[in-house]
Amino acid sequence: MPAVRRPARTLLRAAARRREAAPLLALLLASCLVLGFVEIADELGEDEVHAVDEAILLALREPGDPADPLGPEWVEEVGRDLTALGSMGVLALVSLAVVGYLLIDRKRRAALFVLLAVGGGAALSLLLKRGFDRPRPDLVPHEAEVFTASFPSSHAMLAAVAYLTLGALLARVHGGRAAKAYLLLLAALVAFLVGASRVYLGVHWPTDVLAGWAGGAAWALLCWLAAMALQRRGKVEEGEADEATGPGAGQPPM
Predict the structure, then answer these.
(1) Do the beta carbons of residue 231 and residue 168 sit within 8 Å?
(2) Angstrom distance (rounded) from CA 15 to CA 85
(3) Which residues contact 219 (CB under 8 A, 6 or more apart)?
(4) Which of 17, 94, 158, 233 has a 20 to 30 A CA-CA distance from 150?
(5) What is the spatial distance between Cα 177 and Cα 25, in angstroms, rounded to a whole number?
(6) Backbone angles phi and psi of 143, in degrees to 5
(7) pTM for this entry
(8) Pair type for strands 61-62 and 65-69
(9) 190 vs 178: CA distance, rounded Å
(10) By the 8 A CB rule, do 33 and 221 touch?
């Protein structure tokens, strides 16, 4: 029996160390992303940064014709389809669908948390836009309608906030590492494609999108840390996989 107990204790200690290290790594990454956002914002007025922004925008246009994006017309249509994945309407629909599922699953506090996380990210994006008030690119024609200031890209930021938050939420209810990695990578890919489409359509400078990705990912990480802390205190319901394997295994669900 002692020989059996020692490996079990070792495994439990290793799992505890991993649980302790994950929040610290997430906090470190969030701090780096915030610093990246601040650095980009600080460099906005520099001629060198503006030259890079212009060069990238022009590189995505047909040589000699800045009014025509690279590729055939169907590529432009795909760009509009991808950019719609970061629109307020689509993100609201996806977020409310997840909230509805959580309510049906009797995870009311988790549903409220999702609403606050995504809604808080949207409010932060709007405040940042009003604070910086950067004009939209006038170097090339816009291939999509725009109504707000340019910095940071709200499509890139909100796509990162919503899809990474929802991807992390889904990953927590799946025990397999492959499933977790797939969900998180898929969320990151969607956020990347949304941001890239904004530059391709000429409605954002590349630095707008980089800042949006950094700000959105930082917010999503901070929300994830908050969710972990609240779950440990029993303030937010945990996923099925965590209830089965976590420290509360065997206890009745909330």
Answers:
(1) no
(2) 37
(3) 117, 120, 121, 124, 157, 160, 161
(4) 94
(5) 18
(6) -100, 10
(7) 0.82
(8) antiparallel
(9) 18
(10) yes
Pairwise CA distance, residues 149 & 154, whole Å: 9
Distance CA 185, CA 77 (A): 24
> What whole-number distance in Å separates Cα of residue 88 and Cα of residue 91?
5
Record the tokens describing residue 61, joined without a space. Answer: 């246009």
Terminal CA-CA length for the chain: 34
* pLDDT by 10s per residue, the chain, length 254: 454 455 555 544 544 455 566 778 878 888 899 999 999 999 887 888 889 999 999 999 988 888 888 889 999 999 999 999 999 999 999 999 999 988 998 888 888 989 999 999 999 999 999 999 999 998 888 878 888 888 999 999 999 999 998 888 887 766 678 888 898 999 999 999 999 999 999 999 999 999 999 999 999 999 888 888 877 777 676 654 444 334 333 333 33
For 28-97, the DSSP string reads: HHHHHHHHHHHHHHHTTT-HHHHHHHHHHHHHTEETTEEEEESS-HHHHHHHHHHHHTTSHHHHHHHHHH
Structure tokens at 163: 């899809």
